[in-house]
Design brief:
Number of domains: 1
Distance between the termini: 33 Å
Structural class: mainly alpha
Largest sheet: none
Strand content: under 5%
Radius of gyration: 23 Å
Number of strands: 0
Order of helices and strands: HHHHHHH
Shape: elongated
Length: 166
């Protein structure tokens, strides 16, 4: 039986917690999708007019660095695969952290725009994943736990006093 909408629920009885988790999943998916794009560009279009135009390279530079770019593209594919595979908060945090570190390193050593295209989206997704996991931890109390805590608060007792001794 569906629960009656609470004040924290959005339209159609969707909880705020579910909305934040959905946003975290969407942002994580967008970061993964961008890394699939990086894989395609670096592995298949690096030494191609499209890749040279996007990365601002001459044919000589793109030809001489194509093997390195393909290797870099493969690593971006592994990051994307990890993000798509991550079904737990800890895995999402790990892979988004890897993307963020790679983005900051690339922004400092290769091209500053990498900070905006890689590190910033990863940082935003990471922040929302952390917020979603913290909100989830607060909302996972059972009805019995919530009732005991509310009654304890009404009686002016500390929450730990609401639990029977074991």
């Amino acid at each position: 039986m569906p629960h009656a909408p609470r004040a924290a629920d959005g339209p159609f009885g969707i909880t705020e917690e579910a909305n934040v988790k959905a946003l975290a999943n969407v942002l994580t998916g967008l970061v993964a999708l961008s890394h699939i794009g990086f894989l395609v560009l670096e592995m298949f279009f690096w030494d191609h007019p499209v890749g040279r135009r996007i990365f601002g390279m001459t044919p000589e530079v793109s030809a001489s660095s194509a093997a390195l770019a393909a290797n870099q593209g493969l690593y971006n594919g592994f990051l994307a695969a990890g993000l798509l595979w991550a079904d737990r908060r800890e895995l999402k945090i790990f892979f988004l952290g890897c993307v963020g570190v790679a983005g900051v390193f690339g922004g400092l050593t290769a091209k500053a725009s990498i900070l905006l295209t890689q590190a910033l989206p990863a940082g935003l997704a990471l922040g929302v994943v952390v917020v979603a996991s913290r909100r989830g931890g607060q909302c996972r109390r059972t009805a019995l736990e919530r009732t005991r805590l509310r009654r304890a608060a009404e009686r002016g007792r500390w929450a730990h006093e609401a639990w029977p001794s074991r």
